[in-house]
Write a structure and sequence with these properties.
Elements (H helix, E strand, L loop, with lengths): L1 H11 L6 E11 L1 H11 L7 E8 L3 E8 L2 H4 L2 H5 L4 E9 L14 E5 L2 E8 L5 H10 L9 H12 L5 H11 L5 E6 L2 E6 L8 E4 L5 E4 L2 H6 L3 E5 L4 E6 L4 E5 L7 E2 L1 H6 L5 E2 L2 E2 H15 L6 E4 L5 H11 L7 E3 L12 H11 E3 L1 H4 L3 E6 L6 H12 L4 E6 L21 H4 L2 H8 L3 E4 L2 H7 L5 E2 L1 H4 L8 H6 L4
The site of adenosine monophosphate has 19 residues, from helix 14.
């Protein structure tokens, strides 16, 4: 029995770093196409699979999902499979371990007590395995290895007296960890953000009057929607096709939004919880210039997420901002490939140096973060091989020393260079001439002040992580 449980744990070990999108309006229309554009804008949050589900004839659901980028998964033909509808949800997925399997693609579409439902999830529910195992003991079966299927099953399990919102709330009170959800049920759209507000979720409205819920505001822009407001931590917002809204709240609300969204995960043109990601990154750059005055010839940013920070540094320090590195636009984010060896390959495919710009120069190089150290080492090597005289690295986040259990791909302490080495040792390991990080208080200030989960930097987890939950992150 014990062995079986362990085998299950291994299979269940999967983490998500995804994008969700939901839409609801009065008249049936081609919502699938709008969701497609929304997902396209969220592509940076997940490049492994994409899916869309729409409801039609009140009780039916049509959906299509597959492995690949939004553009690979959906062409005109696939979109035409999805009939005109008043409501739909979509998802892009980034799994960090396990098989990249179509069974794990979302939205999760299922037959439940209230007929067909669909759910899309961003985050990581740390006690999902426990819930899953309990349910399996009672005879439930599961198809995938995702916590999102557990969330769906538990919601269905908790639905009584045909009240879907009560069921959602009861189930969500049981989940520990990160979950931003969009749920389609009975021609209603339900948006949920966990009590800590770990993952972002924003409400918008299209010029046609439809309501839209998305992981990031850049997806609202993609469908011409304006921001109405953020979904609040712990909020369970139900919207019907007439645009009526009802908000209810989970217990023990305590905002601890993931600060890494501002550092790296989100797009610079998004606004999260009222704070522009661009402004936060720019402010970090300005602060870094005040903190670390380096005798150098130029400043440069690692594309794309560190460019804004580098601009802030340049504007305050007076050092010219010069392109040192270029990025191949057709390669995805470094971490997309699940194995470390593939990851190392993609760094050199992805980045190249502008030799003439850097030859003989002393460079201040800004990056948003150092996680494993692989990228920084490659970049410093690249710049030096191409003639840079000195490379002074400045990082727009503190040292990443602790794993994340809530949906960011930093799984074990072993993988994090900052958990093993001191700042000076890291500097040596990556071959830089100097290395500096932004202090945590400065980063918080740049992102709007307080109410953040900074566990990857300070080890203070907003939710108690039990040994059992910890153990499952150690399998690889
Ligand atoms: P490395 O130090 O080799 O792990 O790479 C760090 C770089 O990868 C950072 O500069 C970011 O641009 C990017 N990065 C940081 N955190 C993540 C993450 N959780 N998932 C994907 N990419 C990341």
């Amino acid at each position: 029995m014990k062995n079986e449980a362990v085998i299950c744990d291994r299979e269940w070990k999967i983490k998500e770093e995804c994008g969700v999108f939901g839409i609801i309006g009065k008249e049936p229309c081609d919502v699938a196409r709008k969701i497609y554009f929304g997902l396209f804008a969220l592509q940076h949050r997940g490049q492994e699979s994409a899916g869309i589900a729409v409801s039609y004839q009140r009780t039916k659901v049509a959906y299509y999902k597959n492995l690949g980028l939004v553009n690979d998964v959906f062409g005109d033909e696939e979109l035409k499979l999805l009939p005109d509808s008043k409501v739909g949800v979509g998802h892009v997925r980034y799994s960090t371990t396990g098989t990249n399997n179509v069974v794990n693609a979302q939205p999760v579409v299922f037959y439940g007590k209230l007929g067909r439902m669909a759910l899309a999830h961003n985050g990581n529910v740390i006690n999902a395995d426990k819930i899953k195992y309990d349910m399996m003991k009672c005879g439930h079966i599961f198809q995938s290895s995702t916590d999102s299927e557990v969330i769906s099953a538990r919601i269905n399990y908790r639905i009584q007296d045909k009240n879907v919102v009560d069921g959602v709330i009861e189930a969500c009170e049981e989940f520990k960890g990160a979950f931003s959800l969009v749920i389609m049920a009975e021609e209603r759209l339900i948006a949920v953000r966990d009590r800590l507000g770990l993952k972002p979720l924003v409400l918008g409205q299209t010029p046609e009057g439809e309501y839209v819920v998305a992981s990031e505001s850049c997806a609202l822009d993609a469908v011409g929607a304006i921001i109405v407001r953020d979904i609040e931590p712990g909020e369970v917002l139900t919207i019907d096709t007439d645009g009526n809204m009802e908000s209810r709240y989970l217990k023990n609300i305590d905002k601890k939004a993931c600060i890494f969204e501002y550092v790296y995960l989100a797009r610079s043109d998004s606004v999260i919880d009222g704070v522009s990601v661009y402004d936060a990154r720019y402010e970090c750059g300005r602060m870094l210039a005040e903190l670390y005055k380096i005798d150098a010839d130029l400043v440069s940013g690692v594309p794309d997420s560190a460019l804004v920070c580098a601009k802030g540094y340049s504007d305050v320090s007076g050092l010219p901002m010069v392109d040192a590195i270029t990025k191949n636009r057709y390669v995805g984010r470094t971490f997309i490939q699940p194995s470390q060896s593939m990851r190392e390959n993609t760094v050199s495919i992805k980045l190249n140096a502008f030799r003439n710009n850097i030859k003989g120069k002393r460079i201040v190089l800004i990056d948003d973060s150092i996680v494993r150290g692989t990228t920084s080492k490659k970049i410093v090597d690249l710049l030096k091989k191409n003639g840079a005289k000195e490379v002074h690295m400045i990082i727009g986040s503190p040292i990443v020393s602790y794993p994340c259990f809530f949906g960011v791909d930093m799984q074990t302490k072993e993988q994090l260079i900052g958990s093993k080495l001191s700042k000076d040792e890291i500097c040596k390991a990556i071959g830089a001439d100097s290395l500096n990080y932004i202090p945590i208080e400065y980063l918080k200030k740049a992102c709007g002040g307080q109410g953040f989960c900074c566990a990857c930097f300070d080890g203070i987890y907003p939710e108690e992580v039990e040994q059992e939950d910890l153990d499952k992150f150690m399998f690889e």
